[in-house]
Design goal:
Blueprint lengths: L10 H6 L1 E2 L2 E2 L1 E20 L5 H6 L14 E6 L38 E12 L12 E24 L2 E14 L32 H21 L1 E5 L9 E5 L17 H14 L17 E4 L9 H29 L7 H7 L3 H6 L12 H4 L3 E6 L6 E3 L2 E3 L2 E5 L3 E2 L10 H12 L1
Antiparallel strand pairs: 1-2, 3-6, 3-10, 4-5, 4-8, 5-6, 6-7, 8-9, 11-14, 11-15, 12-13
Keywords: Membrane, Transmembrane, Transmembrane helix
């Protein structure tokens, strides 16, 4: 059902390699020889059966919609390799025949041709005089394809980027049929599959060329996998009297060769060719099944790494406003220190001493924790920070008394003036003087 071939686990790592920076991304082109189906459109439209008769097709367009009931019909097993090759074999492994082995035991005489018929809805309404209007509302165009297995030269552009991969297979050249034989015809024009095909010299025998025999056997096995999906048919119930639905008797619906409504896709021959090409490429997911030789090929490798490029202009654009605001704040701080004549801090001990005021102790009695319900009178009391007026709490140093700065109510607090020796400030200066002496 996927739209691409199957790839092995960690394919990017195995193919592209890695280093301390992580795995690489890579792109490269690969050429090889492998089997491929070549599909030809033999019949296109109702009553286009002349070439079908000439080639001995097992059915014609009358079996397809609108004349017939099949929207898809595939005959893919005619002339297949006989299973089993003999009636009697010895018990046990090895497949040894009973008695003398026939001369054609294990010989590949023909590769089955795929005869595939399908009809697609043209979406054009049928004319009023059409004989098909009793069952159908729109025109269907039947087509019959003949697909033969060839040996072909592939060219694949691989692209492993990140967790994804993409391949673009193209068939550069068809090298010829895998088995170049043909069946003779009966008197009625049909092909005689009971007789051996001709010419016999094109048969592929186990000996003497063992390598060629193994290659054709592998090609045949891959074609057999595809034929298991294709064989069968799909019937389409007509919309009149209705309802219209597909009756499936094929595993082709398990592939991407049909749409979600179980009807075959348009350009079926081309879709089938690319589907088999992806089946061939899927062998790379199981390298133990490949018999190949290693070759050097040019590869483009890239690796994504996080890096930072600092542009001075952009840095100044970002940091200059921050630096300017910081300098302004520092200037305001220096101005405040110069005006006050001292410095301040937000340490707990310093906050504690600045709030020591008997007036505040008196008005906060009963609400020392600050919990609710908080007294409204205290809530609306205006507090200021400054010099406590005469008669309030004083600190003494020797014989001289110095005014104390703290929080208090507006009526007992005066502004702080620069140069006045308040409590604690003068003491610090005297202590510094003693140390210098």
């Amino acid at each position: 059902m996927m739209s691409h071939s199957t790839h092995r686990l960690n394919a990017r790592l195995a193919v592209c390699g890695n280093d301390e920076g992580g795995p690489y991304n890579c792109t490269f082109t690969q050429s090889f020889v492998a089997p491929a189906y070549k599909c030809d459109l033999i019949a296109n439209g109702t009553d286009d059966n002349d070439r079908l008769t000439e080639l001995g097709a097992p059915f014609n367009t009358s079996a397809l919609v609108p004349e017939g009931r099949n929207i898809y019909l595939a005959e893919v097993g005619k002339g297949d390799y006989k299973h089993p090759q003999m009636d009697n074999f010895q018990r046990g492994p090895g497949g040894l025949p009973v008695g003398e082995a026939p001369a054609d035991l294990g010989v590949f005489k023909a590769e089955p041709v795929l005869w595939i018929g399908m009809s697609h809805n043209t979406t054009e309404p049928l004319p009023s005089d059409s004989p098909f209007r009793t069952n159908w509302t729109h025109s269907f165009q039947p087509q019959v394809f003949r697909c033969a297995m060839n040996e072909a030269r592939y060219k694949v552009n691989w692209n492993f980027t990140g967790p994804y991969f993409m391949e673009m297979p193209t068939i550069e050249e068809y090298l010829g049929p895998v088995l170049d034989t043909n069946f003779t015809k009966n008197e009625d024009g049909t092909l005689n599959y009971d007789a051996d095909p001709v010419p016999a010299e094109n048969f592929i025998r186990p000996l003497p060329d063992v390598g060629l025999y193994k290659k054709v056997a592998a090609y045949h096995a891959m074609g057999d996998v595809l034929r298991d999906f294709l064989k069968g048919h799909i019937e389409l119930e007509p919309p009149l009297p209705g309802p219209s639905y597909a009756v499936v008797a094929s595993d082709v619906t398990k592939t991407r060769l049909v749409d979600v409504n179980s009807l075959p896709k348009k350009e079926f021959g081309m879709v089938l060719q690319t589907f088999f090409a992806d089946l061939v490429l899927s062998l790379y997911s199981t390298p133990e099944m490949l018999v190949v030789e290693n070759q050097d090929t040019p590869m483009n490798r890239t690796q994504w790494r996080s890096s930072f490029v600092y542009v001075p202009k952009r840095l100044w654009m970002c940091y200059a406003p921050v630096i300017a605001v910081t300098l302004i704040i520092l200037l305001f701080g220096m101005l405040t220190i110069w005006e006050d004549g001292t410095t301040f801090s937000t340490g707990f001990s310093r906050i504690l001493v600045t709030t020591r005021n008997t007036t505040l102790d008196d008005i906060s009695r009963g609400a020392c924790l600050g919990n609710d319900p908080f007294p409204m009178e205290l809530m609306h009391t205006r507090l200021k920070f400054g010099v406590l007026s005469e008669g309030s709490e004083n600190e003494f140093m020797g014989e001289q008394g110095f005014q104390h700065c703290a929080f208090g109510v507006a009526s007992e607090v005066a502004p702080i003036r620069r140069g006045v020796p308040y409590a604690g400030l003068r003491r610090r200066r005297q202590q510094l003087g003693v140390v210098q002496e």
